Amino acid sequence: MKIESLVDIATRYIEELIITGKLNPGEQIKEDIIAGQLDISRPPVREALNSLEGEGLVTRRPRKGAFVSEMTEKDIWEIYTLKAELYAMATDWAIDRITQEQIDELNSLVVLMGINSRPAQDVILNYQKHHRAFHTRIMEIAGNHRLVKFASSLHKQIRRYSFKTLGYEDHLNRSNQYHRQIAVHIAQKDKENAGKLMKEHVLDAMNFLLKTPGIFV
Fold first, then answer.
1. Mean pLDDT of 147-163
2. Which residues have C-beta within 8 Å of that of residue 185, sequence separation ≥ 6?
3. Do 106 and 137 reside in the same domain of the chain?
4. Do residues 182 and 194 lie in contact, with contact meaning Cβ atoms separated by under 8 Å?
5. What distance in Å separates the CA atoms of residue 45 and residue 13, rounded to the nearest whole number?
6. What CATH number should be reported for the domain holding residue 24?
7. CA distances from 177 to 16, 85, 181 (A)
8. Could you please report the per-residue DSSP string of 60-89?
9. I need a labelling partner for 143 at 20 to 30 A (CA). Which of 42, 79, 98, 135 fits?
10. Do the beta carbons of residue 187 and residue 103 sit within 8 Å?
11. pLDDT value at position 31?
12. How far from chain centre, in Å, is Cα 126?
């Protein structure tokens, strides 16, 4: 079992602040405040910010410090359309290799994504956790490790916006239903419909984000 380092703890903490909107796009992230909140020294926080900069969540400005990255509608379009293609590609490859045990594993993740209450913060974070595990597992089964790494970076860049959209119950339920249907088609080795639904699911999330007033800020 991996033991989290102070850098890991700081990275996860800052990332969650960004995802849940406690740190907003363009807002400065102050090392001393984060260090005080975690009761640690500043160097691990600095390393965490370097890591998050590499993931596209943080932007450093010379002589000014670290800030939460800001995104344009074009950035959102680029990330979501890339995700849609990569996820569909991974699904196609995974169906060629998947075993019954792995199908059962995906089905178990879909069950864990089930919604039993209104979308409060803990419900959304839990949903995102299993949602990410579902897509990551498909990419792992596909057998392309670079794809896993690249898609993970894209996912992290828009996870804060995913958190906002999943706060809408209708969108959360629709997302859940998409994954149930995708799992069914994967189990049936139905490449055409599994890939089609995978793309549709990702692009539906993008369109909901861009068309719903007050989400994309």
1. 88
2. 193, 194, 197
3. yes
4. yes
5. 10
6. 1.10.10.10
7. 26, 20, 6
8. EETTTEEEE----HHHHHHHHHHHHHHHHH
9. 79
10. yes
11. 94
12. 12
